[in-house]
Amino acid sequence: MCGRFTLTVSSEEIAAQFKTNPPQLPQLEFNWNIAPTTPIYFVKGETPSGDVRSIEIARWGLIPSWAKDAGRASNAINARSESIAEKPTFREAFRSRRCIIPATGYYEWATELGPYPPKQPFYIHRKDNALLAIAGLYESWIDPASKKEVTTASIITREAVEGLATIHHRMPVFLTEDKWSEWMGTSKLRESEVDQYLALLN
Cys bridge to 58: 41, 83, 109, 153, which one at CB 3.0-4.6 A? Predict the structure, then answer.
């Protein structure tokens, strides 16, 4: 997880749920099969408190700022919560560029861990059809060829729990509203704060 997800709402609807500034960006088409490298929306904080927010567009598949080419993008669509504080690909983004990736739902394929036939597909979404608030990271990368800045993002995953653990061993990290502001605050984390922010992902 997570290799495909869906988003079938407008940026204005995202702004309403996540209480962001009015979006000033192109509208992405509704997409029932978002794949790696596809443009996606993400919500980020604009202040240290994370209470002022905006919506931006990124390419799904994080490229660390120090990468020499874009080949890493398809390999960094997901970031494991257990290692984001140390892994070089995600370490700086975790400390400074945390975000929420909105989704209508996502697809998962059963493994041999549960009662379902392996590779049986499932579509996972909220019963009330509200957007999923998935914890994410974003990064800026300069393309050496074009010299253009490219914004990329990654979904954070964790060990699956409860009913989802019968389908697959991993799941996205879902953030409840009481965690949004703290997670999206713009202040760079001090070493003493790392465990506090990792706890938000449990």
Answer: 153
**Residues annotated as part of the active site:** 2, 108
pLDDT in tens, the chain (202 residues): 578 999 999 999 999 999 999 998 999 999 999 999 999 999 999 999 999 999 999 999 999 999 888 776 667 999 999 999 999 999 999 999 999 999 999 999 988 677 888 788 999 999 998 999 999 999 999 988 888 999 999 999 999 998 888 888 899 999 999 999 999 999 999 999 999 999 999 9
**C-alpha span between 29 and 19 (Å, rounded):** 21
Q: Is the peptide bond before 99 cis (omega within 30 degrees of 0)?
A: no
Residue 48: half-sphere exposure toward Cβ, Cα within 13 Å:
3
Which of these, 130, 128, 136, lies nearest to 180 by C-alpha position?
136
Rounded to an integer, what distance in angstroms lies between the CA atom of residue 19 and that of residue 21? 7
CA distance readout (Å), 20 to 47, 54, 180: 12, 5, 12
Q: Which fold has domain 1-9+25-101+118-149?
A: hypothetical protein yedk fold (3.90.1680)
